[in-house]
Task: structure prediction
Amino acid sequence: MSRSLATHQRSEGALTTAVERDEGPRVLRGIVAAAVLLSADIHLVLWLDSFADIPVIGPLFLVNVVAGLLIGVGMLIVRHWFLTFLAAGFGAATFAAYLISRTVGLFGVREQTWDPQAVLAAVAEIVAALGGVVLLAAQLRSRRARGESAPT
Result:
């Protein structure tokens, strides 16, 4: 086999390996973005149905919707560690607020039941939080492998 053909085959293999390595984080980014967007959508539906008139909680649901839309769409458009960090924080904070509302109450609201929307939102928020942490770790590991400094 000629040297140029062997180099070409090695280059193709390296390219394929690089593409395969990048595919996992790309898929995970899409899953995390979808989870954030799903949580935002559920909060919008709840806000429109009944939460808009509840003091404090109503406006917070609307803030959650806007933040979720910005973070979720942003993650699909821009590959940056900060959006991943925000997605993980969004999922964790939203799920924590729900747990507080189920246990001791949050601003006078105490959830009593597990309806399908609540279960779906909880799953989406857990996926956003955990998936965001895993994706953030992968992004930082990738930066170190390329010799870039850690984000400041």
Q: What stands out?
A: The helical segments are 3-51, 57-77, 81-103, 116-145. Residues 3-145 form one domain. Residues 1-11, 14-20 have pLDDT under 50 and may be disordered. Residues 3-51 form the longest helix (49 residues).
